[in-house]
Amino acid sequence: MIYFTCDYQEGCHPAILEALQRTNFEQTPGYGEDAYCAEAAGLIRSLCQAPSAQVHFLVGGTQVNLLAVACALRPHQGALCADVGHINTHESGAIEATGHKCIPLPSVSGKITGDQVRSYVRDHFALGNHEHVVQPGMVYISIATELGANYTRSEIADIFAACRETGLYLYVDGARLACAMADAACDWDLPFLAAHSDYFTLGGTKAGLLFGEALVITNPALQKDFRYIMKQRGGMLAKGRLLGIQYAVMLRDGLYFRLGRHAVAMSEKVRRALSALQVPLLSENGTNQTFPILPDSVIEAISDRFTLCPWERVDDTHQAVRIATSWATRQEDVDALIAALTSALR
Amino acid sequence: MIYFTCDYQEGCHPAILEALQRTNFEQTPGYGEDAYCAEAAGLIRSLCQAPSAQVHFLVGGTQVNLLAVACALRPHQGALCADVGHINTHESGAIEATGHKCIPLPSVSGKITGDQVRSYVRDHFALGNHEHVVQPGMVYISIATELGANYTRSEIADIFAACRETGLYLYVDGARLACAMADAACDWDLPFLAAHSDYFTLGGTKAGLLFGEALVITNPALQKDFRYIMKQRGGMLAKGRLLGIQYAVMLRDGLYFRLGRHAVAMSEKVRRALSALQVPLLSENGTNQTFPILPDSVIEAISDRFTLCPWERVDDTHQAVRIATSWATRQEDVDALIAALTSALR
Amino acid sequence: MIYFTCDYQEGCHPAILEALQRTNFEQTPGYGEDAYCAEAAGLIRSLCQAPSAQVHFLVGGTQVNLLAVACALRPHQGALCADVGHINTHESGAIEATGHKCIPLPSVSGKITGDQVRSYVRDHFALGNHEHVVQPGMVYISIATELGANYTRSEIADIFAACRETGLYLYVDGARLACAMADAACDWDLPFLAAHSDYFTLGGTKAGLLFGEALVITNPALQKDFRYIMKQRGGMLAKGRLLGIQYAVMLRDGLYFRLGRHAVAMSEKVRRALSALQVPLLSENGTNQTFPILPDSVIEAISDRFTLCPWERVDDTHQAVRIATSWATRQEDVDALIAALTSALR
Amino acid sequence: MIYFTCDYQEGCHPAILEALQRTNFEQTPGYGEDAYCAEAAGLIRSLCQAPSAQVHFLVGGTQVNLLAVACALRPHQGALCADVGHINTHESGAIEATGHKCIPLPSVSGKITGDQVRSYVRDHFALGNHEHVVQPGMVYISIATELGANYTRSEIADIFAACRETGLYLYVDGARLACAMADAACDWDLPFLAAHSDYFTLGGTKAGLLFGEALVITNPALQKDFRYIMKQRGGMLAKGRLLGIQYAVMLRDGLYFRLGRHAVAMSEKVRRALSALQVPLLSENGTNQTFPILPDSVIEAISDRFTLCPWERVDDTHQAVRIATSWATRQEDVDALIAALTSALR
Known about the structure:
The structure is a homotetramer.
Chain A: E1 2-3, H1 14-23, H2 35-48, E2 54-58, H3 61-72, E3 77-82, H4 86-89, H5 94-97, E4 102-105, H6 114-126, E5 135-142, H7 153-166, E6 169-173, H8 177-182, H9 190-195, E7 199-203, E8 213-217, H10 226-232, H11 241-252, H12 255-276, E9 289-290, E10 293-295, H13 296-302, E11 306-307, E12 309-315, E13 318-324, H14 331-345
């Protein structure tokens, strides 16, 4: 069986295991205060051209998202986000358990706009009794979104401008940032993102690490005492070096970005084939996820060899599925999938 | 200036002040463990034909709502509610500050249905990774709703049946229960409500008390240790007798219900006049709130003598307003309002 | 039966009921935005010589304490307090439910010192891994303390200086402030307290109001958005005017302070008698609470007419009890108690 | 420089890296629903003779502790623990951030007793106003304790009996369980522990894994919906198999226990040498931590080659330090340390 269900079904890139092996018996301080974490943080600051950014290494995405909210908001504030945003839908109420409301905005392919932020904030303060309503305190966006969409340079700049105008923080969940940056249409880079957000993550789990999310905090107002909050929410890894070693391996020579490009190339191949087969997509994008709408019979026909991720029912005989590729996806598996779809669709 | 903006702009029914005066120098235990609270609780149990119900007296609506959630839900659970439900919109994130998500359902005049509950719960557990999504743990409904609507006997019974089938608790926010029961179309009574919910409030603040919400807990599973949680969230009044005295006065001879009927009668008068004037309503109902859609010019024309509550803009020249009447509304003020509207609308 | 168990067993001073009666049918805005609240806030600012202080009116002590913590602390911070401090012992974990740790310091009669604050904070930051330990973020003191003790001018000044040196906020729980100020040994006044704390309460419930705590926030850093948090935690009274009216009555002509002096005078009388009877006290003080150590037989002997508050067992045949007097304590009841004790102790 | 500061300064046992390598390109479901987690859980159930136990794999200790509290307590409940217990001292307020109070009990070498539990609970419910005080809901003990002490079979049985009598849950933090079981004086085993607690952890991070804590829940009342809460608090590892693989390697053939015995043997060697040198210990124990009281001059003298963990100052010229050994400690390093101490102490 070949799985295209998600982007974290294998372990990690072999270079990481090799580095873990090589460093295994070194003695280092715990809790991320070792030389590998320092090196990896330095690499990230340098890639971002953000010399005063703080970089923290965390294990998982839900954890880093809830920490991003906890460190930024006062008790009465909430986080504006897309209605389909991960924090609003698939984190079991992690944000609410931290005491804050997710304030959902209608979205297109998981994207929201600067003007939505401006108008939500303006309407909030125009209310007679705005103190009775959760105050928006930050904006959460995912790049790439949960539906694989990417933001453009001008869209990011506009959301960030809206945040500056309204006094909100902008947080970017970059669990799939490597794939967003590998999108052929991507017109921004890390220095741009670092300069147009208050904090963001450079996701590792879905990019070829065993696990890990690097949180880059560029806004000094959010840097203070972050490690206390990390520790308090169970986010401080005892053997923190494991994160530093992994990120250092990935970033020393650009492996992180090459793996992102591989994942996207595999999806592009899938999309070209689907287009040739005239299969409609739920949502267009240029990253590592594709959402074709397929007849149930086709999904059934290939199900002995390929598992795709069910997404949503479209009508009585069709459903949208997610095909996710990753750093680990093999060319031949993609070819086999395309062949199977081609055959089943005939 | 005469205000029709809300139902808590005056103090309280004179009988309450008289009772406070009469009992003022009695010495009683604090924290609701006095004889007046015991009497009032007994009256409520008796009115509800629920001899084993617990009754707790609290000061305000947001407080009682957050306690209702805190006492019932486990950390990963949320409260299903109407999208316009008070807990979802006008409590500054009180539920989220308690750690739980409000899960909004589309509503009609602020009402939801048993089938919405059934289908939400079924869909939740049908999800592949339902553990990644907040689990519905209770249903919150308001009677009357925020838009003045009432539930029928069969609607309540069906929501309660849906809750029983799915293992959720049903909580009824009865801040405006007195007016709901005074609705001419109301086909249920307190014993019915007590038998078809797990807990509900008999609102006092909007019904002629200085302040107070009586929480009636009929489900034994929710009764345990409630007073700890009350105290913890600042909901236990030191001189708890103030609540007992007020509820006793209101319930000994039915004053509570008479005042509800007065409030509704005043609104009925308003509605008849609006109907005669062919003014459309945002939402039909038979309780103490009316939501006419009026030309801006009319609102402006009467604004030197009458203040209504702005609700929502309908088009460039019209807005919906709320006209709320209460136990304290005077017949002559309603007549004056009708006269003013009639004249302005011509 | 005459009760000396606590200072909130009666209703309120008659002048308050009279004012509630007089204003009962006035229409005012809700939520504390009425003219009475504005007047009362102005009176407090003026008494405190703190023209830019914010004043908020809340119903109860646990509520105001948890709000004081919620508005001031970031998630990883805790509140330094006396081990016997109310927030640490008698609020059912209200502070923890708000997400924060009470950090108890050893105390004498419920008092802590500036040097305890300095040394705790210094030791905290001297720790190798201080990020693994709750960071002190504020200091909570009660005036008078739970054991009736008062702070002197220089003690308050020193705690406040310690807070300024260490970057902590100082919050004073003044539930019994009226009695502390009536202490013959009290060498400070409201302007001094306002100038030597970041925020404090002027307690009403124990000082002759039906209920109410006035929170005075002098530090601008703590003023922002306080009303959101009030609303969120159920602390915003719908008919907020009830608090404004009560405080206005109490403060217009100094009634608040006269009632404090009465309560203390009654306790002084008790203390003089106990001293003459050579009854030892658990803790000396000059406010409205006295903690004599009495033989069980004496407590038993007077128990048909007088109820005192059990405090702690001292040995097999003696216990400390609390005798609390209040604004409502009658001279003749104190005389009767003294006579009874005198007779029983012979 | 050789470090004896803690038990997590190296990576992991080589067999683990080897297994990660071997399985690296297998495709498995995420979130702990893979065959390796199932195998490891089965091994643990079998070792514990607890066929109906739930086993969950988590990344770190603070995380598992806060989940243990979140899944068990209602909002008004707290966790009884030793004053020096990890949750009370070194988790940055993780338990309070979850809404609950740590209720510290005096301890000896970090140990508490069944009778302390009994008397605390009895005293709590004997209070007049117990609803004003946090209700004890669970007991937290560490085995081994933070000071290296172990519990005996009868001590554990008595604490568990006390919990059963009082209705509290017993949770055992087994971050250092492997070393406790390797203690020569240990008179209990896993089946005993599983039968005499409600849930406990089998710590991995300090026992030779890269990271990991296995939570074993034997009490069915605590099993329901645990995975939701795991996910909500950021405790569900995306590539959950990493935990399953590690535990499976450690438990298939007893490696876990052999490594614990090695760690303890190294400490025993240190203790014999210290005893011969007549160095007093802060606290006696038979696990992998030793707390000698050493002259500052000695610590200084060896500090160019050995780093010990500062623990507490004893007097002007002496301090207690922690010497921790682990699965990774080399015989020759222990010999060198002993030689250096011997020489410096002469």
